[in-house]
Design a protein that fits this description.
This protein is mainly beta. Helix content is 6%, strand content 52%. It contains two helices and 26 strands. The strands form six sheets. It has a seven-stranded antiparallel sheet with strand order 1-22-19-24-17-14-13, with no helix packed on it. It is globular, with a radius of gyration of 19 Å. The protein binds cobalt (II) ion.
């Protein structure tokens, strides 16, 4: 194990893109700077987002949605409906196949969306949801140090979320007062992305602000972050799968053939997409 804190491998500003039906967002993954950070395939930051995500499929990974402000309603072709409100989150397994719709039910949704890849032998597990409200999500605080954390998965400040992640991963939203110093342990060997939401932080002697993504070295067991002012940032960390990976549209598989198969299954309604060809969401097509 390397001594000292994690250093910086790469840092860049998230790219402004449009997704779904007119949703403007800042994207850290995939971008021209970084295609993915195994096991993470996508990292989107929705700020004041409007726009919608009508019926669409997924296969082969898990989707994390952490809603900071606003409300996101969802509905899937298995009959699951629900909503994630401000301060809540969802850790959702698409597995062998899901078709769903998402509606941003507010004029200003502020949220983080992450795709976590699944190992080849888990890509065809049944879809599953873990849903959290502001009241049920794990929180931790170190008042003396001026640090608080919302833990969607993994551990921080001595607390551990009970979220089950098929791919070992941690997602923590930290808030720090000016001058606070966080020394946060992470499993060595995991890939780690720090993403700044608000304020400025210093990591490994460099200063970063809002919408900057910082990729950290993997060997060291801790990351150290200093708050230059009142700040808020996400630390996302996960065990790399080290498998071949092909990401195309809404599917993340191990080969091109499996991507072709996914489109075929979605069109025919087979191998996990039973019912998909005739399903229409109430959210978008209901009366
Ligand atoms: Co989706």
């Amino acid at each position: 194990m390397a001594a000292g804190h994690k250093r910086i491998l790469q840092a860049f500003l998230a790219s402004e893109v449009t997704e779904g039906a007119g949703c403007r967002l800042s994207r850290a993954l995939p971008t021209t700077q970084l295609r993915n950070l195994d096991p993470f395939m996508l990292f989107d930051h929705l700020t004041n987002a409007t726009g919608q995500f009508p019926d669409h499929p997924h296969r082969g990974f898990e989707v994390v949605a952490y809603v900071i402000d606003g409300l996101v309603r969802h509905e899937d072709f298995l009959g699951c409906t629900g909503e994630t409100s401000a301060g809540g989150g969802q850790w959702f397994t698409a597995g062998k196949g899901i078709v769903h719709a998402e509606k941003l039910d507010s004029r200003s949704v502020h949220a983080i969306v992450v795709w976590v890849n699944l190992r080849s032998d888990m890509k065809f597990v049944a879809p599953a949801y873990q849903q959290f409200t502001m009241g049920s999500i794990k929180r931790a605080e170190d008042k003396g140090a001026g640090i608080s954390a919302t833990i969607l998965a993994g551990s921080a400040l001595g607390e551990t979320a009970d979220t089950f992640t098929r791919t070992p991963a941690a997602f923590v939203d930290f808030q720090m007062q000016s001058g606070a110093v966080l020394t946060h342990p992470l499993p060595p060997g995991w890939n780690t992305l720090l993403y700044v939401l608000d304020g400025r932080v210093t990591v490994a002697g460099r200063s970063f602000g809002s919408k900057e993504a910082v990729v950290l070295t993997v060997e060291e067991a801790t990351v150290q972050v200093t708050a230059e002012n009142a700040c808020r940032f996400i630390i996302l960390s996960g065990q790399p799968l080290n498998e071949p990976c092909v990401q195309y549209g809404p599917f993340v598989m191990n080969s091109r053939d499996q991507i072709v198969q996914a489109f075929d299954d979605y069109e025919r309604g087979t191998n996990g997409f039973e019912g998909a060809p005739t399903w229409r969401s109430q959210l978008f097509y209901g009366r």
